[in-house]
Design a protein that fits this description.
This protein is α/β, with parallel strands linked by helices. The chain has helices at about 15-30, 40-45, 70-85, 105-115; strands at about 1-5, 45-50, 55-60, 90-95, 115-120, 150-155, 165-170, 175-180. The chain folds into 2 domains: about 1-95, GMP Synthetase, Chain A, domain 3; about 115-180, no CATH class. About 20% of the residues lie in helices and about 20% in strands. Strands 1-2-3-4 form a 4-stranded mixed β-sheet. The two termini are about 35 Å apart.
């Protein structure tokens, strides 16, 4: 069994680590269907890749339970790996620990801002147990990704997806989306 997530590549069972690295690179480069400027690696939902005697096991954590994009992400990961010659692919959904916007990489945060979407601030601290999902009003002080001003106002609690809300900058007057902190 080979894995690339966690403590780094572990190789056993005779699988070459370069094949595993290739599978990881391919799965990690699949883009999110709702935020196409981000890869699954940028978003932090690619949790694990294992290779066991040619069988590729990819573990993804949805941004929230019931996320409608998971079907597309599983399909895209499977088809991209199949196109690269990985014929035995399984994509698993892992719900625990629950995903957090804190898992978005620094590169992902920059890509969101470059696309005119305000990246999330630090997520609220969590206690053990179920994670409350609040897809409503975000914290005050969301900076405009276009001009940097913090003088903004929320115009809608939901955007094209439930995990984003809409804002308007009172300085440059431009509307923008914001990824909610989860």
């Amino acid at each position: 069994m080979v894995s690339t997530i966690g403590a780094g590549p572990r190789v056993s069972g005779g699988e070459p680590s370069s094949r595993l690295a290739t599978a990881r690179r391919i799965a990690g480069s699949v883009t999110d269907p709702e935020l196409p400027m981000l890869t699954l690696a940028d978003l932090g939902i690619l949790r694990d890749i294992r290779l066991d005697r040619g069988h590729v096991i990819v573990s993804l954590t949805p941004t929230y339970s019931g996320c409608p994009a998971m079907h597309e992400m599983r399909r895209d990961v499977s088809s991209r790996l199949a196109a690269a010659g990985f014929t035995d692919v399984e994509v698993r959904t892992v719900l625990s620990p629950a995903w957090s916007t804190d898992w978005i990489t620094a590169a992902g945060q920059r890509k969101l801002a470059a696309a005119g979407i305000a990246p999330p601030q630090a997520a609220p601290l969590r206690t053990a147990g179920p994670v409350p999902l609040t897809l409503s009003t975000s914290r005050a002080g969301v900076a405009c990704p276009l001009c940097g001003s913090a003088d903004t106002e929320q115009t809608a609690a939901f955007s094209a997806t439930a995990c984003k809300d809409l804002y308007r900058c009172l300085t440059c007057a431009e509307p923008f989306e914001h990824v909610k902190e989860i």
